[in-house]
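Format notes (please read before filing issues)

Several people have asked whether sequences and structure tokens are stored in separate files. They are not. Every record keeps both together, in the order shown below: the sequence lines, then the token lines. Line labels are part of the format and must not be stripped during preprocessing.
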Amino acid sequence: MPSTNHLSRDRVGIISFLGILTFVLYLDRVCIGQAMPFIQEDLGLNKTQQSYILMAFTVAYGLFMVPVGLLGDRFGPKKVMVGIVIWWSIFTALTGYVSGLTTLIIIRFLFGAGEAGALPNSAKLIARWFPPERRGFPQGFMNTAALLGGACAPLVTAQTIQFVDSRLAPMLAGTGIHLVGWRTTFYLFGTLGILWSIGFWMWYREPPAEAMQSRPTPALKFALESARESADEYVPPQPLSWGRVLTSPTVWLMGLINTCASAVSYFYMSWYPSYLKDARGVINTESGNMTTLVLIGGALGSLWGGYLSDWMVRRTGERRWSRSIIGATGMFISAIGLLVAPLFDSAWETSIVLCIGFTGGMLMIAAWWGVVADISGPHVATLFGLMNGLGVFGGAGSQFFAGAMVDHNTQVLGLAGRAAWDPVFPVYAAVACLGGIAWLMVNANRQVHSRTLP
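Then the structure lines:
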């Protein structure tokens, strides 16, 4: 039997690998938002066409979450995670090779299909290695790393594009090598996932049975009933009852919450750099700094939410309101930030307010993951894929809505600058409020797989 210290080291390794994975996941995902003005100029795109490119990723991301989650539950997370990371890394690099709108849409769709499996199978790993009352920190840490990757993406992308275009490309032009900043950035980012896959494949092993053990509470006994795998071989769970899943109010509420949260998050990741450039007249490198500031707020909120989620569950001994209060409060803070931010004339002041709002909005992430793990039993990857995949409606809708509304305001109403962009903010605030209301109706004790947890 492995020692407690050995098990602790393995858990640290799991958290570290998942943190690096989600950092790369969001770095590869978010960088296109900062590169989009250059892609627009290079390929001659309008805002609505840009929204199609952004939506291609999001639609594939939602469509493939359940299938890749099923693969993780069936074959175990190790093989599936290594395969999907290599897949999306290849298509990250191929983004730099595109020559037109159609090829770019296809590449981003296939990129999204690969990224779809990362979070469901990460949730599977956390559920296999950590008992319920200790999952908040790894979930919060992983999501913090993801948002830090997203936060670094605008800054790193802007600086890389500037370096390639202003220094590296002129230096290599005489050798016959022609570099374009935004294209080279995607080539470089595509290598990171390959390196992670090699390291994870060499290191990972299946958890021992005592990885799930803690104090013998009824909830933990229930969790142990689902942890029948040995340290050497992955054993798939019993078939899932889809009738019970699809009639569960909690499943649909979690999907609605993720839809609302995704709408807000994808606005920041996909459109905020363009808003700063077009509406506020901010240059590319400075818009990268401002977007990074907003996304860092989300990263901090996710980390604090992880600690807070664990603390409240341990303090109160119940999940129903511990999870819901955190989630609802965070979404309402996000809504207030979106309403207030456009009132400021300074782009930095607007970004600071949105940073505070996004900090609140991301407080709910660990609680959301906690509820999904609480209700899913041994089918975490599949059900996480379903509930997270429902967020595609918010993510894709957000990407289309902002671009289409700005085009409408510009081309039909004759508006420009802030007059064309600022009206989108109240809409996103209303969406965040809807997510907060949905949180108040969530009951984490309603177990989908077999029975209600005490």
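For reference, the curators noted about this record: The chain has a mean pLDDT of 81. The domain at 4-205+215-225+238-439 is CATH 1.20.1250.20 (Growth Hormone; Chain: A;).
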